Amino acid sequence: MCLYRHSTRKSLSALLCEMASVTVRSSALCALALMNFLFVFGTGAEFVRFISFRAIYHNITGGPPLCRDSVSWSEALRDSAVLCAAGVDIVLLVLFAAQHSLLAWDPIKRTCKSVLGVLNRAFYCSTTALALQVLMRFWQPVTGAPCLWTVSTAPWDTWFPLLCFTLHFLCWAIICSILLIFDYPELLGIKQVYYECLGLGDPLSLKSPRAQRLYAHLRHPVCLELGVVLWLIPSLPLDRLLLATGLSAYIALAHSLDKQDCEYLSAQLHSKLQLFSLPPGGSEEPDNHKQE
């Protein structure tokens, strides 16, 4: 009897220790996921300022000139300061593309997943945010070269920046909406931690094969909107041309949508529109019953 009680107390003690260990691990995972979210969210807000507000706000307030239209391109391209600043910007763009591509490469992705486990996606987002922080902190404005275009004739020197500001605001609103539709918590690695703590497995594996295929081809579904905010500005100096060209080319090359993906997107859009078109209290069901 005493041996049985001793064995029971020992098993209860082991169970409590195991529960405490699981609780500590879950708390640590949640804390890391929250820190990642705050860092990525803050970096995203700063990226909006870097891409949109800096370029447009300058024209509204009449800040220092972004470029020198009094010099020719042949003279500017012989200026060591222009070449040095442009070279630094190109290196920063290459570093960002290298980080974003290498960590998405299957062999490195599998290695990171085996080491980091459920924090793999959060690590990818954090390193991407870190690469963006480096790009924004060390970006060099090229003020010694002429602008490729500038709107300086009244009244468009006032109205066109305001138009750009309005369109940029709409594009960023659309980008935020699309990210929410494309499962923003899963994209940031928060959902993976949440599902791990609840023992539900990988959230991406619970999606349909067609949805997984689409996510593999289109993890950043904001190409058109980013193109607008990159190129639609009142003045286009050389450094902005490098930034817009580099990011636009990377976005275009990073996606590989095919006919099956487009058919899946069309079917999903059709099912959502059917839901909105149903009469109140209607019993009609959309053809696509599974929501992914």
TrEMBL record:
It is a multi-pass membrane protein. The chain crosses the membrane at residues 80-98, 118-139, 159-182. It comes from the Eukaryota. This is Nurim. It is found in: Nucleus inner membrane. One of its GO terms (cellular component) is nuclear inner membrane. It comes from Albula goreensis. Signal peptide: none annotated. Belongs to the nurim family. Keywords: Membrane, Transmembrane, Transmembrane helix. Its main location: nucleus. InterPro entries: Nurim-like.
